Amino acid sequence: MTDPSLVESAWRRFWNRDGWWRAVLLAVVYIAAFLGISALTSTLFSGMIDAKSPTSNGVSIFFGFALPVLLGAALLLLFIWSAGWWHEIFGRQPIKGSGWMWIAVALVLVPIVIHLSSTRWGELSAGVIVAYLVMGLGVGAAEELLTRGLAVNLLRKAGYGEKAVMVLSSVIFALLHMQNMIGGQPPLLTLLELPYTFGFGLMMYLVLRVTGSIIWPILLHAATDPTTALSSGSLGGLGEAAASASSGPLLLIASMFGYVFLVAGLIMLFFVKGRVHPRNALA
Q: For the chain, what is the domain count?
C-alpha cells in the first residue's frame, strides 16, 4: 500500500512546480466542481427553491445561489490546506503595494455606496437581505480565493512579474463568468460582461497589493454583488443596466463603473512593478 505521506508530498510537489497552466487547470477543475455542486444542491433542495422566481424569498436565494458558492469556497479552503499554502494565501503579501493603489479601493467603494443608498430597504424582507449578504460572502470568498489567492500564487511561483500576474489573474477571473451561459444567460450578454469582470479583476488585484491581505478583496467583492442585487433586482453584471436606467441616474452611474474599472485598471497597470520569484522568471 502506498504511504499516504508520499502521496501528499507528490500532490504538493505538483502544485509547487513552475507553469502558468496550473492556474488555468485549477480554475477549470473548480468550475467543473462548482457546476456539479450546483446541480447536486438544486436537486437535493428543489423543494426549497422557487422555480418560477428563484429570488422571491430568502430561503430560495440561499439554497439556489448562496449554498453552492459557500460549498465552492469550502472546497477551495480544503485545497489550500492540502497544498500547504495556508500562510501563502492568508499571510502578508510578499510584495508591498504602492500608495497610489488605494485609488482602486476608492473606486470599488463608489458603486457599493451608491447601491446601498439607492436600495428600497423597506420593500425587502429580512430573509432576502440576509440571504443576499450570505451569497455575497460566498461569492467573494470563492472567486477571490481562486483568482487573487491561488491563481496569483501560482503565477508568482512560475516567475511572472507583477504586471503579468495582474493581467493573467484578471483574465482567469473574467473567463470564470463564461459559466453564466450554462445557467441560461444569453451568450451576447455574457460576452459583454467580460470587459466589466476583467476591469473588476484588475481592481481586486490592486486591493490585494495595497492592503497586503486577501481578506480585503474578499470583503469588497462580498459587498459588491449583494448590494448590486438588492438595489437593482439583478444578480449583477450588465444585466443591472436596464433596471438601473429606469430606477434613477445614480444606479445608471453605478452600472457604468465596470468600464471605469477597466480604463483605470489599464492605466494603473503601467505603474505596477516587481516580481516575487526572479530566479524562475518566465516573463
A: 1
